[in-house]
Amino acid sequence: MIDTARSCAYIGVVAWEETVRSNAPAGARSCLVVVLALALLNLPAMAASEKPLAVVLTAQHAKLDNASAEIGADVFSGDALVTDQGGSMRLTVGPSQVYLLSASSATLAPHDGRVQAQIHIGTMGFSTSAPTDLEVQTPLGVIRGADAKAIFGQVDVVSATKMRVTAYQGTLLVTDAVGGEKTIAAGETYEATLAPEPKADDNPPPKGVTGAGINWKHVVEVAIPLVAAGVLACALWPESESQMGCWHN
Predict the structure, then answer these.
(1) SS3 235
(2) Which of 10, 13, 177, 189 reaches 20 to 30 Å from 112, CA-CA?
């Protein structure tokens, strides 16, 4: 297989070398040619230094970096993860797993020694036996495990100002942009809405609104559809000796 990046770099080096030969003194030409040649030799090592953050386990009507997502494909930092209407995708991220349901968009990135799954819109589920290795970035805050115990949760990002967070197993901790925190215990679902910026003459914010303008509401009326989504997540998440299942203890 042709290494496109190396080939393009080589062509660039040759063109640059011809320019140098015609415009620079002999000594300077030699030095520059050596430097460019060494840079070309280091290109494969630089490419190899970037390691994948995840691997695609299952994919249906899903795209990885604008191409059809294939089982076994590596996922690198910044790769676009997109599911079409009715699609789904499941990834293994070290000891963790992440899934996307229908009409969702996300990316992965390294962050402070862990992998950060960044959900832009749609529904993302996450499960890990090592909560220090994974966190979920949403438009309204970051979701992590509240302690060292295994977690299984799901976030539904409705818009840039609204989301729903469910903890199926373990306790989740949501931290907003200014450090405000919300704990969600197993079996609980909360809806978060970004409140508008208060005016100087407004009354104090109502109970339940944090200093960051996040209104947290314990949601009961949407419990049934969220349970249905959890059942679908379990179907995407088979139990095995090496991977956590939905109700692993």
Answers:
(1) helix
(2) 189
Q: Could you give the CA distance from residue 127 to residue 150 in angstroms, rounded to a whole number?
A: 8
11-14 long-range contacts (CB < 8 A, ≥24 apart) are 13/37, 13/39, 13/40
- Model confidence pLDDT, tens digit, residues 207-230: 444 444 789 998 864 444 455 455
| Residue from 104, 229, 82 nearest 166 by CA | 229
Pick from 23, 32, 94, 99: which is nearest to 59 by CA? 99
Task: Tell me the C-alpha distance between 12 and 18, whole Å.
Answer: 10
Burial of 88 from C-beta contacts in 10 A (0-12 / 13-18 / 19+) = buried
The model's pLDDT over 193-211, given as tens digits with 9 standing for 90+, comes to 987 766 655 555 544 444 4
Q: What is the CA radius of gyration of the chain?
A: 24
> Could you tell me which of 88, 95, 58, 53 has the C-alpha nearest to residue 74?
53
The SS3 call for residue 99 is strand
Contact 155, 117 (CB under 8 A): no
CA 92 to chain CA centroid, Å, is: 12
Span 59-70, average pLDDT: 96
Q: From residue 194, how far is each of 139, 140, 155, 201 by CA, in Å?
A: 10, 7, 15, 20
User: Where does the chain have alpha helices with state H?
Assistant: 4-23, 26-48, 223-236
- Tens digit of each residue's pLDDT (9 = 90 or more) over 73-117: 999 999 999 999 999 999 999 999 999 999 999 999 999 999 999
pTM summary value: 0.70
Tell me how long the chain is: 249
